[in-house]
Design a protein that fits this description.
The chain is built from 13 helices and no strands.
Length: 246
């Protein structure tokens, strides 16, 4: 009888997991269109013992509601639960937690989460590159530009099509007074996202430091025209030195 009971238990476990994963996916999908409803669903599920899957959905819901700190906490709990369950998605969940902590303005917690995400072999391809990129951002915030350069270089190997990777690489090179590298990398960012105001702003900054007035004017003018908020304001302020702010 004991052997039969064990056999039955083994047979039903995958079905239970599939059901829970399906519920998580439905909740995550709901978070895209109606994050408030997803938060309600996920919160009930957490209280009912939904574990890391419920926390994953709660994190997605908070992200949709632009509540970065609660999202980071939920993703962290999801990652811990997945790791305890030896679920292969744990690394991905740790990377999500790290990104959320960055958005929440806590680079220390972001780096801790991203260190865990990158410690094993759970991330590959673009996801691996994005995790390195996020850790580089956390390291820059901590003032460790040397370590940040290593992570950005790793990110460029796996996420070479991401214009943000080239933008951050160019910006870091400028801050480290490596203008040849800055010019090369901002050109790659422009190839991929010339309609991004942040890319145009940095192109102007690098051109100015390189003594290229025409390039600086061009980058800043475009950034002022297509940008919003702080990016447009920075570009407009930079153009003021020429008396041609727009």
């Amino acid at each position: 009888m004991i052997l039969l009971a064990l056999a039955l238990q083994t047979a039903v476990t995958p079905a239970l997991t599939d059901s829970q994963d399906a519920r998580m996916q439905r909740c995550v999908d709901l978070a895209v269109g109606d994050p408030a409803a997803a938060q309600t669903e996920a919160s009930r599920w957490v209280l009912a013992g939904g574990g890391f899957r419920a926390q994953q959905c709660l994190g997605r819901a908070y992200t949709g509601l632009k509540r970065s700190a609660p999202a980071a906490l939920a993703f962290t709990e999801s990652a811990r639960g997945a790791a305890d369950a030896k679920d292969a998605r744990a690394a991905s969940f740790w990377a999500q937690a790290g990104n959320a902590w960055l958005v929440a303005g806590d680079p220390v917690k972001a780096k801790t989460a991203l260190d865990t995400a990158l410690a094993g072999s759970g991330l590959t391809g673009l996801a691996l590159g994005e995790a390195h990129l996020d850790r580089a951002r956390a390291l820059v915030a901590a003032g460790d530009t040397v370590a940040a350069r290593k992570d950005i270089d790793a990110a460029l190997l796996h996420a070479a099509d991401d214009p943000l990777a080239w933008l951050l690489s160019a910006t870091l090179a400028r801050r480290m007074n490596d203008l040849p590298r800055a010019r090369t990398d901002i050109a790659k960012a422009l190839d991929r996202a010339s309609d991004d105001a942040s890319v145009q702003l940095e192109a102007g900054n690098i051109a100015a430091l390189s003594g290229d007035e025409a390039g600086a004017r061009s980058g800043w003018t475009t950034a002022a025209q297509i940008g919003q908020g702080a990016v447009a304001a920075s570009a407009t302020a930079a153009l003021a030195q020429f008396g041609t702010a727009k």
